[in-house]
Amino acid sequence: MSAGHDASRRRFLLSLLLGLVAGRTLVACDSSTESRHVPGQAPEWLLKITGERDAVVRIGKDYLEAFPAERNVEALMSAIESSFEAVNAAAADAGEIVTALQQAVRGDYQRGDVAQVNGWILSRTEARLYAAVALLSA
Amino acid sequence: MFTDARTIPDHTRLDADIAVIGGGPAGITLARSFAGSGTSVCVIESGGHEADADTQALYEGSNAGIEYPLAGSRLRFLGGSSNHWGGYCRPLDPIDFEQRDWVPFSGWPFGIEELLPYYEPANRIVEIAPGRFEDMAYWQQHTGESLPQPVTGRMQMRFVHFSPPTHFGSRYREDLDRAANIQVLLNANVVNIAATEQGRSVRQLELRTLDGRAHTVRARIYVLATGGLENPRMLLLSNDVVPAGLGNHNDMVGRFFMEHPHLSGFGEIVLADLKRLPAIYRERVRVEGRNANAAFNPSDAFLRERRLLNATFMAGLAGNYHRGMTSDWDHVPLHMDMLNAARPFLADGEGPIDTQNPELIGHWLGLGCACEQVPNPDSRVTLSEERDALGLRRIRLDWRLTEQDRRSLVEHMRSLAMEFGALGIGRMLLNVEDDGLWPEKVSGGSHHMGATRMHDDPKQGVVDRNSRVHGMDNLFVAGSSVFPTSGAANPTLTLVALTLRLAEHLKGRLQ
Ligand SMILES: Cc1cc2nc3c(=O)[nH]c(=O)nc-3n(C[C@H](O)[C@H](O)[C@H](O)COP(=O)(O)OP(=O)(O)OC[C@H]3O[C@@H](n4cnc5c(N)ncnc54)[C@H](O)[C@@H]3O)c2cc1C
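Predict the joint structure of the above. Result:
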């Protein structure tokens, strides 16, 4: 996969993620994040892969509190991306990404790649998805 | 035949081939093994057919370690604690018998194969036969549900069977009554196991009733079966010849007391879609006339790789969540948030999980565990200075747990969380701080093990591989106090199997 393709997909993902919080004031903690200026439409894949927004945000905030070094949308997105790429490097459309993420999350649990978040034992990828949404909803 | 010790003349002497002290599951099993044979058996039981407060009070004592209900965790009348046991049954795992270099003092004198011939008859005695403890295909076929196999490599599925539960005193009363060669002496407390001068044999048992009568029993063989806490107490109390107590030349009696530590509310699992968790994984299911429940058990490979202790976990459906639900319990919003956030990982499609019940968002499971603890010489039974109504020193228990026990338990809890996540079934909330301390609310399962442990070397155990007290030729111990390690299975099935093995050994000796 080419670097140009990577970058455009990253932007695509970010815009999809941002779409989730469209209509809200976006204040990402990392002010260098270009993404906070790119609100889009709520993407199908993200709505599918994370549930009810308020609940997601609360858990996402708990994760960021436990792992403050991850308070960076770009870094989170890049980590999420590598997680699903490891399952399906060619995933491009919403359906494929959702399926790959579901598998990636199960794979995290299977390998023991988990984080403890306010008592919950969560897949690292899953927790990052919640955290990304939380950051963008602040 | 039953005899009330309060109704026979004072200073009666009874004779038998075998004297069994205690009429609980171990004592009754041993006696029944000789029913109808040419061997005469006298069972001496402290209580009667029903509970009695004064007799029960003989079980009171004090704690020096973790707070433990000494009278509340056992019953002192015919049938013993089986009068209120839960009936959970599962054999020990093969690894429990092994000497594991990461588990101090581990290793039985024999492997599980030595007990295998006795487990099936034991299954019949506790009324759960045939045992299908590992037979996934059987449960799959009979429940009609596809049973997911663990995928992390950390866990494996086992199946706990539930005894009705068998109350040994009432269930086997008729057998004991009918057997011409068995005499059960009720309301008779053994107060001393009197030894011969050199302390190498038992000479006789000295009995008292609470109303003051004294009797004696003489036999060729004596079997101590008064339960996991009382067995060491009886040996320590019997000190007229050997001051340290019978079998206690090496200061081993009472040491290595083990329980299955349990933390109530250590964790909860939320799940959105019950269809992802077969009924037998979350409740008792009745198949072919008996109840069973799946248990999550660490795999052998995982135990070896991470050098952990054994454990058994079971889950039970505890409640349902509906949209907008509120509660005073502060875990409810946490559970509901997780169900709402992780919905796409935990259920198919996007609509309501249950179209008949559109407000339903999911469920939560309570968790139970029976965990192995490391055999620890400092976790022990001794005698207190207080005396009971018979003038005997009361029991003093110093139950201790170690950091190794705690770390192992926490690791297994995390494994359980991973298994539920990897299978896409649920998410687990862990309520135990990983702070190096045992939470105060730790309790046991009324499983009293280890305090007269079995070991071939008299310096390392109280009884030998045949349950004979080291250094004594005619005193044997039956019950879970002989377990060198506790494993993670409830003890009664195994202690019944061990008792059947002991009965066979004694038959050989008496020939
Ligand atoms: C609430 C509860 C739930 C339990 N649930 C389970 C379970 O689900 N699964 C499981 O495997 N185990 C369970 N257990 C443990 C189980 O009950 C014991 O493992 C079992 O009863 C031990 O049998 P035993 O014969 O060795 O001792 P006991 O049952 O303790 O019997 C000892 C007998 O000796 C008599 N005795 C005591 N001292 C004297 C004396 N000095 N002279 C004469 N007689 C004496 C007593 O009266 C008693 O009848 C549970 C226990 C409790 C309390």
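Chain A has one domain: 3-136.
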